[in-house]
Amino acid sequence: MKSAIVCLPFLLVIPVSCDDSPGGPGAWEVTPPENPLPAGNRLFGITVTENEGGFLPSFDVARQAGLQVVEINIPWDSIETGPGTYQDPYGGVLAATAFYGTEGVEVLLSLAVVNTVFSCVPSYLDSLPFSSPEVISACEEVLDFVMGSIPDNVTVTGISIGNEIDLVLTSYDDWVDYIVFFSAVADYFRNAYPGIPVGGKCTVMNGVFGPDSLHVEALNEHSDIVMLTYYPQDGDFQVLPPETVHDHFSAICQTFPGKEIWLCEAGYQSGQDWCASSEEQQAEFFHELFTAWDDHAGQVGLIKIDWLHDISPGMLAGLLEYYGFSDPGFVEYLATLGLRTYVGTDKYAWLQLLAETEARGW
């Protein structure tokens, strides 16, 4: 469970930090990648959360790891403020993607029809089912606005219709309704904007491996790419052993045979008090993640890491207000997802990540 992040030079919506400094007695060392597979056509991304120095220094740090893709996740109701009335939200987030085009970084779009814990359909459509002609038509029109607002120099990697869909839909009828909607909107988008793959982001732990697995599979019968978010942890936000990633990758790929899979978010917190993790364990996870990716490189085409820096205390407070949930494990999870601290020091995970991406040619 995690909210959408919009990362741009002028806007970062979400993310945060506890003081999880690297430190330690110096016994830790980078694990050398063994027989790394060249990156090839695989795409690598990071969510560029800002440190206290701001966006541009943070972006420059992310480039050191071979950054190719960022994600812009925008709630539908932040774009359509009234029936057929649109704005480029947050002071111009769509226009500002020109920065990424100039830097040669691709943009993965996510229109948050639903967003982890809430529906983001504009209020005038609230009483209608997703599958109604009115909601389908309105979504197609807002997609046209979004695509028309993206600068010409920007390469759109793909688009997700919904963010962590399985955490919002609560019944069989909800799923049937959303899948009818998704199928119609995806068909419209791929016909209007050929060459840009369409998916619908669901979670691995609750969606693919949990009670909604059959619904997630049914939704992906209508997608071009299986788009997932991956945070290997239990219901108390305690991390699973790093090596679990290998079984997870195998199971995910077996669930969607013949389909390309993108991990649009992949993260592993370092918090020790509630999440049963550590900096060493976080670094080990990223070593295992890239090793597992090599083993499934023919099917897993993109991984984007969440996130670069631990987020600020103010951003953490904003997230907790958004979710309305302050379980201490959840707080520590959000606060320690970064590869680096908010003050800009390296965690072991960042050093391990640099070794993994360099070895593969990113």
Strand adjacency order, main sheet = 3-14-13-12-11
| Helical residues, percent | 25-40%
Q: What would you give as the CATH superfamily? A: Glycosidases
The chain-level mean pLDDT equals 93
Uncertain spans, ≥5 residues at pLDDT below 50? 1-25
Helices and strands: which structural class? alpha/beta
Radius of gyration: 19 Å
Topology:
Elements: E1 6-8, E2 11-13, E3 43-46, H1 55-63, E4 69-75, H2 76-79, E5 80-82, E6 85-86, H3 89-92, H4 98-103, E7 106-115, E8 118-119, H5 133-149, E9 156-163, H6 172-192, E10 198-199, E11 202-203, H7 204-208, H8 213-219, E12 226-230, H9 244-255, E13 261-266, H10 279-295, E14 300-305, H11 313-323, H12 328-335, H13 348-360
Parallel strand pairs: 3-14, 4-7, 7-9, 9-10, 11-12, 12-13, 13-14
Antiparallel strand pairs: 1-2, 5-6, 7-8
Helix pairs in contact: 5-6, 10-13
Notes on the structure:
The chain is an alpha/beta fold and 362 residues long. The chain has one domain: TIM Barrel. It has helices spanning 55-63, 76-79, 89-92, 98-103, 133-149, 172-192, 204-208, 213-219, 244-255, 279-295, 313-323, 328-335, 348-360, and strands at 6-8, 11-13, 43-46, 69-75, 80-82, 85-86, 106-115, 118-119, 156-163, 198-199, 202-203, 226-230, 261-266, 300-305. The strands form 4 sheets. A 5-stranded parallel sheet has the order 3-14-13-12-11. Strands 4, 7, 8, 9 and 10 form a 5-stranded mixed sheet that branches. Helix 9 links the parallel strand 12 (226-230) and strand 13. Helix 5 (133-149) crosses helix 6 (172-192) and helix 10 packs parallel to helix 13 (348-360). Mean pLDDT is 93; it is low at 1-25.
